[in-house]
Design goal:
2 domains; 24 strands; nine-stranded mixed beta sheet; 28% helix; decarboxylase; binds pyridoxal-5'-phosphate; amino-acid biosynthesis; 12 helices; 463 residues; alpha/beta; eight-stranded parallel beta barrel; TIM Barrel; Lyase, Ornithine Decarboxylase, Chain A, domain 1
Length: 463
């Protein structure tokens, strides 16, 4: 059953859905290694620390809410992906998951490339010194200005997404006297999500050019004719939070089929294939993500086998993990403001942030875990819902979780695995100020994205 489809009704408290938290964990003080960043530990005094710093000290120094990011863990994950794929493949970090100049520098140092999908992300990458040739530019509606800027800067590749864009990129490149490397993004009729994938009828979406009906083949024909373009490969991205490799298997089969048709029609073997991102992480103890080396092995084997069958030279593979690198490396630290036990239902725990710092629960029905981190507790577990401070009843951070029954205002709680798509999707709803991102490493903490201030808000409001 798709985990996103589980019923979440008001009677959750006494009728827990099957396969969900059917029972509270044996000890709420134990932190599941799977969902917490690598250096997170609970000390003998009960206080949780990360990067050698107690969360109580982080809260005092930087305030709450705050995203706390374990730099050593980020670097280790980036390196693990790089090492797993080796020198004959490329790893592009998907900047949309979370991007800041510090992150760009870490990626550069760890030998990863970078995906951007807007002028703003491109500007961030360039201003932090990422070499342009290691940047890929994505998006289904890049503006003329963005295209011009990307080509002028010398980005390594533009992933073209439509027939119009093929022409726009070619013209822009020619007017700049350049030949731009491009990949064509195609949709292969596969949508993968978590434990399921749908292998037909998923061309009904805004991204890419459908393989079906010969449209992708026609796009290739046009791209090969244009002097401003150097077509280096085909791109396919099939979904998000994927655990099952079978969706990639079907996608690779179809992409390689197109490469074979291109060879047969044009006599060219395109040198690259990009399989996108979307690899899943553990948000709760129920999730079992794969290690980068397993993913690399599986993807390489699939592409190699498909190419052997098609009698093609195996192209250079690239992948684009975002969530799988940054997701597990951060948690959101909140202070509990109110605790409202509703008899026979659940306890509502209100924190000092909410849907403005984590929209994923409201938007995708995403599941998260949560723990009391400023102290240990021997109190009995109680079914809780962690909610924010916004004027909206859908303002839920963690839908169902067990917290100690003695939880009280002033306690610090933390929601793990919020490194991806939380700060990057944060909003100013209710004019709430977006939290900082604090990087911790080896006993030191530093702000890499500062907290918004009321001045920041008012600066945009010109009166
Ligand atoms: C979003 C996206 C990614 C990254 O997805 P994750 O789930 O964060 O790994 C990679 N490639 C493309 C084209 C994307 O749109």
């Amino acid at each position: 059953m798709s985990r996103s489809a589980h019923p979440a009704g008001p009677r959750h408290a006494d009728v827990l859905p099957e396969g969900h938290y059917s029972a509270p964990p044996a000890d709420l003080n134990v932190l599941d290694r799977k969902v917490w960043a690598q250096t997170v530990t609970r000390a003998d005094d009960g206080v949780v620390s990360v990067g050698g710093i107690p969360v109580t000290r982080l809260a005092e120094e930087f305030g709450t809410p705050a995203y706390i990011l374990d730099e050593a863990d980020f670097r280790a994950r980036a390196r693990a992906w790089r090492t797993a794929f080796g020198p004959d493949a490329d790893v592009f970090y998907a900047g949309k998951a979370f991007l800041s100049r510090a992150v760009v520098r870490w990626l550069d140092e760890e030998g990863l490339n970078l995906d951007v999908c807007s002028g703003g992300e491109l500007a961030t990458a360039l201003s932090a010194g990422m070499p342009a040739e290691r940047i890929a530019f994505h998006g289904n509606n890049k503006s003329g200005e963005e295209i011009h800027r990307a080509i002028s800067a010398g980005v390594g590749r533009i992933v073209v997404d439509s027939f119009q864009e093929i022409v726009r990129v070619a013209h822009a490149a020619q007017s700049l006297g350049k030949r731009q490397k491009v990949q064509i993004r195609i949709t292969v009729g596969v949508e993968a999500h978590t434990h399921e994938f749908i292998a037909t009828a998923h061309e009904d979406q805004k991204f890419g050019i459908p393989l079906a009906g010969g449209q992708a083949a026609e796009a290739v024909r046009r791209a090969l004719q244009l002097d401003g373009l150097e077509l280096i490969g085909i791109h396919s991205h099939i979904g998000s939070q994927i655990f099952d490799m079978s969706g990639f298997e079907v996608a690779a089969h179809r992409v390689v089929g197109l490469l074979r048709d291109i060879r047969d029609e044009h006599g060219v073997e395109l040198p690259e294939i990009d399989l996108g991102g979307g690899l899943g992480i553990a948000y709760t103890s129920d999730d079992d993500p794969r290690e980068p080396h397993e993913i690399a092995k599986a993807l390489t084997e699939i592409v190699t086998r498909e190419c052997e069958n098609a009698r093609l030279r195996t192209p250079r593979i690239s992948v684009e993990p975002g969530r799988a690198i940054v997701g597990p490396t951060a948690f959101t630290l909140y202070e509990v403001g109110t605790v409202k036990p509703l008899e026979g239902l659940r306890t509502y725990v209100s924190v000092d942030g909410g849907m403005s710092d984590n929209i994923r629960t409201a938007l995708y029905d995403a599941e998260y875990s949560v723990a009391l981190v400023s102290r240990a507790s021997d109190a009995a577990p109680t079914l809780a819902r962690v909610v924010g401070k916004h004027c909206e009843s859908g303002d839920i951070v963690v839908k169902d979780a067990f917290l100690p029954a003695d939880l009280a205002p002033g306690d610090l709680i933390a929601v793990p695995a919020t490194g991806a798509y939380c700060r990057s999707m944060a909003s100013n709803y209710n004019h709430v100020l977006r939290p900082p991102v604090v990087a911790v490493e080896g006993g030191a903490a530093r702000v890499i994205v500062r907290r918004e201030t009321e001045e920041d808000l008012l600066r945009l409001d010109v009166g």
